[in-house]
Write a structure and sequence with these properties.
Blueprint lengths: L2 H27 L3 H84 L1
Length: about 120
């Protein structure tokens, strides 16, 4: 066997030992199944909470948009109500003015009738 072949063989053996050592270390440092199971459950719980929060955030956005729409509609209806109140006040004033005129006309007619009689 030549020196180069020997070096290549030593490199292969060294690489194999490194690979085996990494596997042994990974097995040695791997957490026990009970801890992995707890970590998996905890991770799933975190994902569930995250999903719930995203859902609530989406629903909050929808509720907020609906609230803004409702507030705009309430504002429109309040404007309509104010216009109607102004119209009603104007109508009352006009009606009272006309009634006063008619009362005055009636008084004038009565006065004229008394003078003629």
């Amino acid at each position: 066997m030549s020196t180069i072949e020997t070096l290549k063989a030593v490199e292969k053996i060294s690489d194999r030992l490194k690979f085996e050592r990494k596997g042994q270390l990974a097995f040695f440092f791997r957490p026990p199944p009970s801890i992995r199971l707890k970590a998996t459950k905890t991770l799933q719980q975190v994902r569930d909470v995250q999903f719930d929060l995203n859902l609530e955030l989406c629903l909050y956005g929808q509720v907020h948009a609906t609230l803004e729409e409702t507030e705009a509609l309430v504002g429109q209806e309040q404007g309509k109500l104010q216009r109607l109140q102004v119209e009603l006040t104007n109508s009352k004033t006009e009606t009272e003015r006309r009634l006063a005129e008619k009362d005055e006309e009636m008084e004038n007619i009565r006065s004229d009738t008394k003078f003629k009689a």
